[in-house]
Amino acid sequence: MTDKQNKPHIISVSSGKGGVGKTSFTVNLAVALSQKKQKVLLIDGDLGLANVDIVLGLNVKHSLREIVEEERDPMDTLVEIMPGFSVLPASSGVPEMASLSYEEQAFLIDSLEHITGKFDYVLVDTAAGIGESVLWFNDWADTNFVILTPDPTSMTDAYALIKIMHTRYEKNNFSLIINHVKNKKEENEVFANMSAVLEKFLGIKPNNQGAIPRDGAVANAVRTQTPFLISQPKTRASLAIMEICNKILT
Asked: Which CATH number fits domain 9-249: 3.40.630.30, 3.30.70.260, 3.40.50.300, 3.40.50.11540?
């Protein structure tokens, strides 16, 4: 919940590589939090290759690009998905948005902070990888979620992202979310492996935020552009999202 200064809890959701289900997770987490009576803002932080609008089937009229280039009021850019859940869309196919200057970054963050006080939670679905926008959105956030899968390349790239955030911004508190797991055993193995490497080389003890099992409902939801938490709320993936949501709220 917000405090007396109306400061929301800002959570960045990132991944070392693409294709790990980051945007789908973030959209469904936003739905879960709004179902728990929280006011949620989801910012599409992939500034040059927006995906949130595609996952939700939105016809976007305005985006973050106009906030930066035209100084448009961010409130005029918000799209309400359902009561308590709004999206701030990004632009797609605009490479210059992925490499904003320091002044443009500062202006964008300042603009966002003028509206975030209206929300309890702000989720930032960053771009994949270790680009500059990923790093400064993570630095802005109070909590850093890193999504990975059991794929060794995903684990390696997640470590690289965490290492950069740790060395550049002295971030030490990371929450891991393991997607596409076969079972609890695989979840525990992946978390144990990542945790051991992070502790050995960076002195970081990550938080196990939870895992999402492989579930056909997820791919189907992406194709139909409807969050699986809405279309199939009783599936294994939906129940896992609710568990993660409840952990955030406690």
From this structure: 3.40.50.300
